[in-house]
Design goal:
The protein is of the alpha+beta class and about 210 residues long. It is built from two helices and 16 strands. The protein has helices at about 1-15, 185-205, and strands at about 15-25, 30-35, 35-40, 45-50, 55-60, 65-70, 75-80, 85-95, 95-105, 105-110, 115-120, 125-130, 135-140, 145-150, 155-160, 165-175. The protein has a four-stranded mixed sheet with strand order 4-1-8-6, with no helix packed on it. A four-stranded antiparallel sheet has the order 3-2-5-7, with no helix packed on it. It has a four-stranded mixed sheet with strand order 12-9-16-14, with no helix packed on it. The protein is rod-shaped, with a radius of gyration of 38 Å. The chain starts with a helix and ends with a helix.
Length: about 210
C-alpha cells in the first residue's frame, strides 16, 4: 500500500509542467482554474501545474485599456500546460476618434487630462484614449468670433468624455452688433429751449 502511494506521488510529480505567466501593464489581474482549484495572480509568476486542462482569464482595471493573451485579442484561454510553457498577458490601449470640424475662421484648443494640449486651426481627426476627459475651447481668428457648437451650445468651452467616435463642429463668423439709434442730447436740449420760447411768445400774444 505504501509503495502504491509513493508510485502515485512520483507519477503526479513527474507529470507536473512548468508554466511562466507574465503580466505586462498596470491593473492586470488573472484567474487561473485547474483541477477544481482557483488561483489569483497579480504579478509575474512561475507555476508547476498538473498535465491537465487549465483555463486562464485576464482582467484589466484601468479605464481605456483591454488585455491580450499571447498576442490575441481575448480575455480567456484554455490550454494544456504540457503544450504551452509561457503565457504573456499584455495591457492594450483602446482608442477612439474625435473629429473636430471648423466652420469659418477660428481654432479649437484641446486640453487633455495629462496636461498636454493640441491646437487645431483646421478640421482634423484626433485619436484619443477611450474614457478620456477632454476640454475643447473655441477661439475666433481674423476678426471672427465663436458663434456656436453643432448642438447650438454658445459657450466657447465644452467638455466631452471620449466614449466613442464623435464629431464636434465649431462655427465661427462675424457677430452683428446691436443697432441702437444715436441720440443727440445737445439737439434735444436746444429743441426743448426753442419749444419753451415758442410757448412763451404765444402766451404773450394771446388776449387775456
Amino acid at each position: 500500500f505504501i509503495i502504491l502511494i509513493l508510485l502515485t506521488t512520483a507519477s503526479l510529480t513527474s507529470s507536473a509542467c512548468t508554466v511562466n505567466i507574465l503580466l505586462q501593464g498596470k491593473g492586470i489581474s488573472v484567474i487561473l482554474e485547474y483541477c477544481n482549484h482557483i488561483e489569483l495572480i497579480t504579478r509575474n509568476t512561475t507555476l508547476s501545474l498538473p498535465n491537465t486542462s487549465a483555463t486562464i482569464t485576464a482582467y484589466e482595471s484601468a479605464i481605456g485599456y483591454n488585455v491580450s493573451i499571447n498576442g490575441k485579442n481575448t480575455t480567456s484561454l484554455t490550454f494544456n500546460p504540457e503544450n504551452l510553457k509561457e503565457i504573456v498577458i499584455r495591457s492594450m490601449p483602446i482608442y477612439v476618434w474625435i473629429t473636430v470640424k471648423i466652420n469659418g475662421s477660428g481654432k479649437v484648443i484641446i486640453n487633455f487630462q495629462n496636461g498636454s494640449k493640441e491646437i487645431l486651426n483646421q478640421s482634423e481627426k484626433v485619436k484619443v484614449l477611450y474614457g478620456s476627459l477632454l476640454t475643447l475651447k473655441a477661439e475666433g481668428t481674423n476678426g471672427n468670433s465663436f458663434i456656436s457648437w453643432n448642438n447650438n451650445y454658445t459657450y466657447p468651452t465644452v467638455w466631452i468624455i471620449a466614449s466613442n467616435n464623435t464629431c464636434v463642429i465649431a462655427n465661427f463668423g462675424k457677430v452683428k452688433s446691436a443697432i441702437t439709434p444715436s441720440v443727440n442730447l445737445l439737439g434735444i436740449g436746444l429743441l426743448i429751449v426753442l419749444g419753451g420760447v415758442y410757448i412763451y411768445i404765444k402766451r404773450k400774444q394771446s388776449p387775456t
